[in-house]
Inverse folding.
């Protein structure tokens, strides 16, 4: 009788743990909603964002954060206001997320913001540049990407000072982001004393840029050509400008300036025509910080390809949420407060600190790259 | 059908009204209210197009233009010049109606494919103007934070606030029912016969003393005005306005709704619009293939059942009638 | 100044010849069948994609890929005729086939979207990098190829229509189908031939357009609306008119970009279209046709 009794306690203990174990291990979850363009012209944003997100979630859910695991639901917002609004409402209705990441396109982001605010769910954005997203002061919207003002003033000033540029021609797609960015450059450059020779806007449906390049070629000596457009058209423009003999890549003297919309790998597609291109990237794959090297290695292992800034941004969004959870947040309200209080988060794209309009004001997310003749990047340490 | 008695039709309307009233209580939640309102807007668009296409026989591929004009005119009146909502609404509707009559100028001289291309060209030009006249329309920058219609305070009743999606749905659906009723009256009147005569053969119609030009203009005006009304609701419903919502592919979507539902009838566009609006939502899991299904539906209907759902329903009813008959 | 004008003229003619290839197909079909194939645009896109995959997946040469695209286009034309136009012909409806092809177009575009994805494909040929500079103007080897292939094709087509029996039969059928039938010509076979020919042109046009365009499933759609305008401005069913109008539209595009704004291209082209329809619906070069326009 005694022997069994001695063993009974541990047995009961084991049984108790076996029963209670799953209940304890039944993790608390943080629900992340993702509104990304999966169809439509911006669909390559969505596809790459998803990869970055999945990598982050895979890493985080191995051990969880503060006892929390992360679940995610994707909805297709199609880079347009109406589908984005519908997708947002459906997401909130069916999934009830604690936090939402998205969108990429400014128009779609502006459309979903009121819905998120009404539902009291924080929205974390890493892709839209329009100033209207944070400027009026939206307590439920956060942006880790530098807005068009931050980027534009910086690049125009650097063009004037570091490149000694005095003349410029602006090429931009006719969207919120394209027009907004071009305007900021225009204002800054002109104020410094530079001259804008032409500003040519074009719709997303324009395909043949030979005529535009010809027009640019006829404008005389141009120092810089800031170009604000997505990859598809960007490629054509760069090639056409080189064919017309305007840019360095085509034997001319002008330098094309670009921003974050062009992914890493652009040079390989554009070839020699992209030599001399200088652009802002929000992800520097040559960055030597451990966090970046680990990210690049993990990404290559999982996807057998190099990560672009889109992957990096999405990764950072999830990591930032995880950081907020680590600091004690557990639901929509506390995540919102945690985000607002972020002061020293370090991500693969740079650091994050939000000002009172929830805009990230750290400029180390802006890196400048110049394309060398061998098509690799030379990191210009302008920031 | 014409044969149905007035009493039966009145019952039909009552039933429809009750169904509309009951829907938001059955399908609850923000998401469904949104879908139902989109349904109602699409029904309006389809009704407008069907009036021109199915009843007057004019292939109009420019319905997206009237949709867009209604939306932009009403929203700009409200946001830029502070015009009260319902006045702006009327303004949008009238502007679209006039635009329709301008397109009719081409319709009276052209037929078939020429008219189709001309209307497409009209839609392209309208879209490009909305897109490029940035100082007026904001173009791709978009107009944001468009308010819903102002709340209505009737004496003795609680205030109807259109921030509430159910209230907005009732407004749009109620308006749609009204338009359906009015179109029904028009179609049953001698005007309907005139339009049918023009649709069948406008050369012969002229010999009957029918002024085809005038009636075509009328049809376009009405159809465009109804499309414009849909646009007016669109603005305050979505809250954001960008020209891309009115690209020419919209015309094809509306056309699909009319054809799949059954053109030349009034119930056809209603069914087609509801089906093709809700179907993609239910098929969301299939992703991009849902639009393939759309296209396939349109092609198959045209090939095998050009009268659409209405024709199918009649065939079924006839079959059932046969069965009943054969057992006697 | 003069060099800019000359350059834009070159740009316009290159683009214009591509538009002509696409529009010719439409005009041929219309001439023979009095129908419009809305899915013509997607034949262009599919031609482009087949050329792309032939080059990049199978390692074929660019010039051969143009031939592949031609075959793909021809096959699609055959399919659409068999599945849609032939059956609907018996019903005798004027507009139903157009609507059916709208459905086919939506299907094709979205099927392509599902298969190929939404990311734009960069269709590079070795010829676009080769630039020639002559008297202040520039053009690439690619544009020379475009002009040569288009001119040869159009010349061959012309010769076919005017000199061969089949070609004359085609014209006979478009003038008066009944009488042609009485004269022993099988209109249905001819219609099939026309479709195959027209769609082959579309496919080939796609292969040549692809390096110029941003290659997505919607690439053809961006060209087709202009192709419609060209067909009307030139005159439905009229080969000379289509050629003229196509080059004209290409020139309009480049000169509007130079002196106005790229965003106004569509407005100018379609404004011209509506003007033509209002004043001279039979087109720039009108044959004497008893056309119920």
């Amino acid at each position: 009788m005694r022997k069994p009794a001695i063993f009974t306690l541990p047995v009961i203990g084991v049984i108790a743990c076996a029963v209670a174990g799953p209940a304890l291990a039944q993790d608390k979850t943080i629900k992340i909603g993702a509104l990304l363009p999966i169809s439509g012209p911006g669909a390559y944003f969505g596809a790459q964002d998803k990869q970055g997100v999945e990598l982050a979630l895979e890493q985080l859910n191995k051990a969880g954060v503060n006892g929390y695991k992360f679940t995610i639901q994707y909805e297709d917002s199609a880079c347009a206001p109406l589908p984005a609004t519908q997708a947002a409402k459906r997401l909130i209705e069916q999934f009830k997320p604690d936090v939402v990441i998205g969108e990429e396109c400014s128009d779609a982001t502006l459309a979903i913001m009121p819905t998120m605010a009404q539902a009291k769910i924080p929205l974390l954005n890493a892709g839209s540049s329009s100033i209207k997203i944070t400027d009026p002061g939206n307590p439920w919207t956060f942006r880790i990407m530098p807005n068009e003002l931050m980027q534009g003033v910086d690049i125009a000033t650097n063009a004037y000072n570091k490149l000694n540029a005095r003349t410029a021609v602006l090429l931009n797609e006719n969207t919120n982001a394209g027009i907004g960015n071009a305007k900021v450059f225009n204002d800054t450059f002109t104020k410094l004393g530079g001259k804008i020779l032409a500003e040519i806007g074009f719709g997303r449906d324009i395909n043949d840029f030979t005529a535009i390049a010809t027009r640019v070629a006829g404008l005389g000596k141009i120092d810089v050509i800031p170009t604000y457009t997505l990859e598809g058209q960007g490629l054509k423009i760069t090639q056409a400008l080189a064919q017309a003999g305007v840019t360095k890549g085509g034997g001319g003297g002008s330098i094309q300036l670009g921003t974050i919309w062009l992914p890493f790998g652009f040079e390989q597609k554009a070839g020699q025509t992209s030599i001399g291109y200088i652009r802002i990237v929000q992800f520097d794959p040559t960055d030597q910080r451990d966090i970046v090297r680990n990210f690049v290695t993990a990404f290559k292992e999982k996807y057998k390809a190099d990560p672009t800034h889109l992957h990096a941004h999405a990764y950072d969004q999830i990591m930032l949420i995880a950081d907020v959870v680590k600091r004690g947040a557990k639901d929509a309200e506390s995540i919102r407060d945690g985000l607002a209080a972020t002061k020293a988060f370090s991500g693969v794209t740079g650091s994050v600190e939000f000002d009172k309009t929830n805009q990230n004001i750290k400029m180390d997310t802006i890196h400048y790259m110049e394309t060398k003749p061998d098509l690799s990047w030379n990191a210009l340490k302008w920031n | 059908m014409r044969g149905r008695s007035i009493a039966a039709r009145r019952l039909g309307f009552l039933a429809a009204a009750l169904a509309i009233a009951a829907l938001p209580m059955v399908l609850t939640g923000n998401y469904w209210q949104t879908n139902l309102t989109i349904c109602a807007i699409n029904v309006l668009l389809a009704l407008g197009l069907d009036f021109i296409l199915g009843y007057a026989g004019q292939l109009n591929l420019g319905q997206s233009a009237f949709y867009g004009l209604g939306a932009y005119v009403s929203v700009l009146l409200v946001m830029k010049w502070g015009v009260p909502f319902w006045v702006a609404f009327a303004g949008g509707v009238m502007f679209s109606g006039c635009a329709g009559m301008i397109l009719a100028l081409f319709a009276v001289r052209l037929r078939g494919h020429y008219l189709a291309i001309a209307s497409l060209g009209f839609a392209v030009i309208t879209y490009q103007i909305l897109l490029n006249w940035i100082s007026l329309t904001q173009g791709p920058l978009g107009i944001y934070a468009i308010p819903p219609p102002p709340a209505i305070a009737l004496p003795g009743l609680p205030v109807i606030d259109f921030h509430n999606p159910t209230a907005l749905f009732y407004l749009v659906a109620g308006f749609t029912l009204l338009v359906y009723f009015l179109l029904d009256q028009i179609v049953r009147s001698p005007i309907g016969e005139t339009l049918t005569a023009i649709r069948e053969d406008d050369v012969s119609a002229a010999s009957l003393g029918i002024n085809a030009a005038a009636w075509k203009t009328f049809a376009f005006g009405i159809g465009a005005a109804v499309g414009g009304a849909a646009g007016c609701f669109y603005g305050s419903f979505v809250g954001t306005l960008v020209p891309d919502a009115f690209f020419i592919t919209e015309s094809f979507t509306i056309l699909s709704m009319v054809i799949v539902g059954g053109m030349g009838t009034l119930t056809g566009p209603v069914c087609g619009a509801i089906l093709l609006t809700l179907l993609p939502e239910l098929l969301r899991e299939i992703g991009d293939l849902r639009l393939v299904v759309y296209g396939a539906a349109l092609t198959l209907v045209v090939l095998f059942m050009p009268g659409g759902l209405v024709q199918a329903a009649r065939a079924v009813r006839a079959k059932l009638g046969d069965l009943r008959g054969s057992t006697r | 100044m003069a060099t800019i004008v000359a350059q834009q003229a070159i740009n316009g003619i290159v683009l214009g010849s591509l538009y002509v290839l696409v529009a010719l197909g439409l005009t041929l079909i219309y001439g023979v069948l009095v129908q419009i194939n809305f899915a013509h645009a997607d034949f262009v896109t599919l031609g482009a994609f087949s050329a792309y995959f032939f080059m990049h997946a199978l390692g074929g040469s660019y010039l051969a890929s143009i031939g592949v695209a031609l075959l793909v286009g021809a096959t699609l034309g055959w399919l659409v005729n068999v599945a849609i136009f032939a059956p609907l012909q018996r019903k005798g409806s004027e507009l139903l086939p157009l609507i059916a092809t709208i459905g086919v177009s939506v299907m094709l575009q979205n099927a392509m979207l599902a298969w190929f994805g939404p990311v734009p494909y960069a269709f590079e040929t070795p010829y676009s990098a080769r630039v020639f500079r002559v008297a202040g103007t520039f053009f690439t080897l690619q544009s020379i190829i475009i002009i040569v292939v288009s001119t040869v094709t159009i010349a061959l087509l012309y010769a076919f229509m005017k000199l061969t029996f089949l070609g004359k039969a085609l014209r006979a059928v478009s003038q008066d189908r009944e009488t042609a039938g009485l004269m022993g010509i099988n209109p249905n076979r001819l219609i099939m031939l026309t479709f195959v020919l027209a769609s082959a042109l579309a496919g080939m046009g796609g292969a040549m357009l692809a390096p110029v365009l941003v290659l997505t499933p919607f690439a053809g759609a961006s060209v087709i609306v202009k192709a419609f305008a060209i067909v009307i401005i030139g005159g439905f069913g009229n080969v000379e008119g289509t050629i003229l109008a196509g080059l004209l539209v290409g020139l309009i595009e480049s000169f509007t970009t130079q002196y106005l704004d790229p965003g106004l291209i569509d407005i100018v082209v379609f404004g011209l279209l509506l003007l033509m329809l209002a004043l001279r619906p039979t087109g720039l070069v009108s044959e004497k046709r008893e056309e119920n326009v």
User: Anything to note?
Assistant: Chain B touches chain C through 42 residues (CB under 8 Å). Chain B has a mean pLDDT of 85.
